[in-house]
Specification:
Helix content: 40-55%
Strand content: 15-25%
CATH class of one domain: Alpha Beta
Pfam families: Abhydrolase_1
Protein name: AB hydrolase-1 domain-containing protein
CATH topology of one domain: Rossmann fold
Largest sheet: 8 strands, mixed
Organism: Pseudoalteromonas phenolica
InterPro entries: AB_hydrolase_1, AB_hydrolase_fold
CATH superfamily of one domain: Alpha/Beta hydrolase fold, catalytic domain
GO molecular function: hydrolase activity
Length: about 325
């Protein structure tokens, strides 16, 4: 028998370090999942970056997947936490949904992430909140409730008070819509998911332009819990942030959409409606996309992501 004197090379310290570096990099950029009663969260991006944590909050009957293009645009320089609210679009139904409790759970999550960021970077980091529609309302509400936690807020087609969207005037108050809010709550208690999808389909023209995006929005509605949706709508119609909005310390960017209207006078009316809601907030900016509909992330993702990245990088 011929004995071989060949011996495989032992791994060098350098090669081991390279393997270890690759493994660490993969771990840092992979998604981690946490579950709470009112939401689940997937975390992505660079956890070693000194930049602020960013939290993406979807809107009514949507899940975190709607933020994919924005996530891709910001995750290389930030640790990004993508929220999916329980009861919306396949997310597990909460035991007893409450917008108030949802906000408190989000505050607890933000507090913990800020604490960990400060411990690892030895600097005080505040979180940036980006929300769509209902998610934008939540982001502004959290910035009001806990100003020490939040540095910037981006609200994508979400307002401090939703009521004027239905009436066309900022004179609308929760008191004037109380009966409608109660009817919506009652109606959704007896509604099926198929009926919820049909209701969404009836107004889909205002949500997105492309048929494939419209279908996806309707599909998310059909996978949502009607009771949870009704409670969320009732809360939005019953709570108005405008009277206390001037107390927000965070910089606020509202990105509105008026592409669902054909004539310029209607588009200008919507822009005026949005700007009036933040007229007493000097650190607020309203920018309108006149071609996109409600889901700007579907109709014009480049415009949306350009606005978001410029805003979060602005140090002024």
């Amino acid at each position: 028998m011929i004995k071989s004197h060949y011996k495989p090379n032992k791994p060098t310290k350098l090669s081991l370090l390279i393997v270890l570096f690759i493994a660490i990099a993969a771990a840092l950029n992979s998604a981690q999942v946490w579950a709470h009663n009112h939401f689940t969260v997937k975390s992505f991006g660079n956890s070693q970056a000194d930049n602020a944590n960013i939290i993406l909050i979807p809107g009514l009957m949507s899940n975190g997947e709607v933020w994919q293009s924005t996530l891709d645009a910001i995750k290389d320089e930030h640790r990004v936490h993508v929220i999916s609210i329980s009861g919306f679009a396949d997310s597990q139904k909460p035991t007893n949904f409450s917008m108030y409790e949802l906000q408190n759970e989000l505050i607890d999550f933000i507090t913990e992430k800020n604490r960990k960021s400060e411990a690892s970077n030895a600097v005080a980091n505040k979180t940036i909140l980006i929300g769509h529609s209902l998610g934008g309302f939540l982001a502004m509400s959290i910035a009001l409730e806990k100003p020490e936690l939040v540095s910037k807020v981006v609200s994508v087609d979400g307002l401090p008070y939703i009521g004027p969207i239905f009436t066309g005037t900022n004179q609308t108050t929760p008191a004037s819509l109380s009966h409608q809010a109660e009817r919506i709550l009652l109606m959704h208690k007896s509604m099926t998911q198929a009926q919820l999808a049909k209701q969404t389909a009836s107004g889909i023209f205002i949500q997105a332009t492309q048929p494939r995006h419209q279908k996806h929005i309707i599909d998310m509605a059909e996978r949502s819990d009607p009771v949870t949706v009704g409670k969320a709508m009732h809360y939005l119609m019953s709570n108005d942030l405008r009277p206390s909005l001037a107390k927000i310390k965070a910089d606020l960017l509202i990105l509105g959409a008026s592409g669902g209207f054909n004539d310029n006078s209607r588009k200008q009316g919507v822009e005026q409606l949005y700007k009036e809601q933040v007229v007493n907030l000097p650190n607020a900016v309203v920018k309108m996309n006149t071609t996109s509909r409600h889901f700007i992330m579907y109709d014009d993702p480049k415009w949306l992501n350009d606005q978001v990245t410029a805003f979060i990088k602005d140090k002024s």
